[in-house]
Amino acid sequence: MRFDLHVHTRFSACSRLALSAILENARSLGLDGVCLTDHDTMDMAQKVREGVQDDGLCVLIGMEYTTPEGDILLYGPFEDLGPGLSAPEVLEAAEALGGLAVAAHPFRARQPAWPDLLDHPLLRAVEVENGRNSPVENAAAKAFAGRHGKCCLGGSDAHDLSELGRVTVRIETPVCGRAAFVAALRAGRCCLGGSAPGRKWV
């Protein structure tokens, strides 16, 4: 299954991407699933039925959590996670809740992740391909993940429809809900999938 793991809706103040546009276009772009990862909120769960939609698209809710040490993509049961936590606290919460925490765009020049995040033993995965990063920034993330044995993930970081599906991950087992999705990622049953078939990254 081909997923875009990093998508922002209008629940993120910086995004112009409407939920309706995602639902109407994801399948035609060649996506089997999207994970909606708004900044510091999972409130989109109140607006969309999570799981497989009528057209077969799997819609899951995650979050991009802001910490002083760097942004963290969270997949799992984090609805009750309060604001203001440090990166180590978020990583500990992810383990306690059985979710997955991913260092988001950790080598982006204007907002690099700190060692407190990258060197933490509970960091399992790194976003090594981000659709808004430069090739140099993505290459640095991929090199870091390779050196430290981290799971390599990616996502478009879409804030606009033109960005949806730029970067995808292939999940190697069928998933229809959040728990199975997280289990597949934690077990490493995934790989980078390039751009969605209907999307060219230019």
UniProtKB/TrEMBL annotation:
Residues 3-69 form the Polymerase/histidinol phosphatase N-terminal domain. Pfam families: PHP (PF02811), PHP_C (PF13263). GO terms for molecular function: 5'-3' DNA exonuclease activity; 5'-3' RNA exonuclease activity. It comes from the Bacteria. SUPFAM superfamilies: PHP domain-like. InterPro entries: PHP_dom, PHP_domain, Pol/His_phosphatase_N, Pol/histidinol_Pase-like. This is PHP domain protein. It comes from Solidesulfovibrio carbinoliphilus subsp. oakridgensis.
